[in-house]
């Protein structure tokens, strides 16, 4: 406690990371659902690919994650996956990416 | 009396070996694969059956715990079928992944033959959404749903414990072949469910993971 400025600087530094660490892309409409941290560079557009990516990612977390993140619901919809190629491609990409981001050791 | 006992045991062992031997076309195949892995392909056209056997033997020979397998023929692909038939390529890929998972996971889960597991697996209880996906397909067109069920059964056999390996096996019905390839809706359901279900059992049966679920 001799030099509180160090703690202030550290707090400022960490607070600048909060958005980066805790947020999900806006178009995913994730709300208050449990999330995995440090997800960056994810697709964030208002299109079918992004919607599929988000659903695939959520489904994979429901499968491979621990704790609260595992309580997410799966989002499998055979109608969308067989009729909408962009959605289907996004779903597979999201499922794979989020699985290996969480646990690279899984098959 | 003692001799009769030995004779009975010998006959039992011989009959067991002969029954197990039925699941491989040749003696070499039999010694270079796990005993319970069935190399007899499911019913289907010649390229379908060839693909299953070629892929499974390729995967079996990558098993570094079997000295016979390691000195085998390595990659097995029929060049004619592989160049011309999408069915051959599709089944080869599916069977290669299936057998490539089946073999190491059989070793990992071997203890489940004798070790009962009383862990309460909360995410697989009846009525939960995830448990339901193991038993029936999510909403979608009929071929997708059939593909889901068959892909999931194959996934259970691939990474599940002996409880799953005994009743389930590779299934990708040849009746869904349309022209020179599988029905796309069926194939989509099969692929999606195979990965979902094999990962489910991979995690559920993993000694490192299931305690944290």
Write the layout of secondary structure elements.
The complex is a heterodimer of chains A (107) and B (213).
Chain A lengths: L3 H19 L25 H17 L13 H6 L1 H18 L5
Helix pairs in contact in A: 2-4
Chain B lengths: L1 H20 L5 H5 L14 H15 L6 H4 L8 H6 L1 H23 L20 H7 L6 H18 L2 H4 L11 E2 L2 E2 L1 H22 L8
Antiparallel strand pairs in B: 1-2
Helix pairs in contact in B: 3-6, 6-8, 8-10
Explain this structure to me?
The complex is a heterodimer of chains A (107) and B (213). Helix content of chain A is 56%, strand content 0%. Chain A has four helices and no strands. In chain A, helix 2 runs parallel beside helix 4. The radius of gyration of chain A is 17 Å and the shape is elongated. Chain B is an all-alpha fold and 213 residues long. Chain B has one domain. Chain B has a two-stranded antiparallel ribbon.
Question: How would you summarize this macromolecular structure in one to three sentences?
Answer:
Chain A has 107 residues and is mainly α.
Radius of gyration of chain A: 17 Å
Helix content of chain A: 55-70%
Q: What do the pLDDT scores of chain B average to? A: 78
Pair of chains with the largest interface and how many residues each contributes: A-B, 20 and 28 residues
Any idea how many domains of chain B?
1
| β-strand number of chain B | 2
Number of helices of chain A: 4
Integer-rounded radius of gyration of chain B? 19 Å
Head-to-tail CA distance between termini of chain A: 49 Å
Overall 3D shape of chain A? elongated
Strand content of chain A: under 5%
**Portion in helices of chain B:** 55-70%
Low-confidence stretches of chain B: none
* Low-confidence region ranges of chain A: none
Please trace the helix and strand order of chain B, writing H or E for each element: HHHHHHHHHEEH
Helix and strand content put the structural class of chain B at mainly alpha
Task: Characterize the overall form of chain B.
Answer: globular
């Amino acid at each position: 406690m001799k030099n509180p400025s160090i703690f202030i600087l550290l707090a400022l530094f960490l607070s600048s990371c909060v958005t980066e660490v805790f947020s999900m892309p806006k178009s995913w409409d994730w709300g208050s659902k449990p999330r995995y941290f440090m997800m960056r560079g994810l697709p964030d557009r208002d299109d079918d690919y992004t919607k599929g990516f988000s659903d695939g990612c959520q489904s994979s977390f429901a499968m491979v994650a621990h704790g609260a993140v595992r309580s997410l619901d799966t989002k499998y919809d055979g109608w969308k996956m067989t009729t909408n190629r962009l959605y289907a491609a996004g779903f597979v990409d999201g499922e794979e990416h989020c699985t290996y981001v969480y646990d690279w050791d899984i098959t | 009396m003692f001799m009769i006992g030995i004779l009975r045991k010998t006959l039992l062992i011989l009959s067991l070996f002969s029954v197990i031997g039925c699941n491989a076309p040749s003696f070499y195949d039999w010694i270079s694969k796990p005993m319970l892995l069935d190399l007899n392909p499911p019913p289907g056209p010649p390229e379908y059956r060839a693909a299953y056997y070629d892929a499974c033997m390729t995967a079996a020979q990558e098993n570094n715990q079997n000295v016979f397998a390691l000195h085998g023929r390595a990659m097995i692909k029929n060049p004619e079928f592989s160049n011309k038939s999408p069915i051959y390529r599709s089944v080869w890929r599916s069977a290669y992944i299936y057998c490539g998972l089946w073999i190491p996971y059989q070793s990992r889960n071997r203890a489940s033959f004798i070790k009962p597991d009383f862990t309460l697996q909360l995410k697989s209880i009846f009525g939960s959404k995830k448990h339901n996906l193991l038993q029936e397909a999510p909403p979608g067109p009929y071929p997708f749903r059939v593909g889901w069920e068959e892909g999931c059964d194959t996934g259970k056999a691939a990474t599940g414990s002996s409880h799953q390996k005994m009743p389930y096996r590779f299934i990708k019905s040849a009746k869904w072949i349309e022209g020179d390839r599988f029905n796309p809706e069926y194939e989509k359901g099969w692929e999606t469910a195979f990965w979902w279900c094999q990962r489910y059992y991979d995690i559920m049966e993993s000694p490192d993971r299931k305690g944290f679920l």
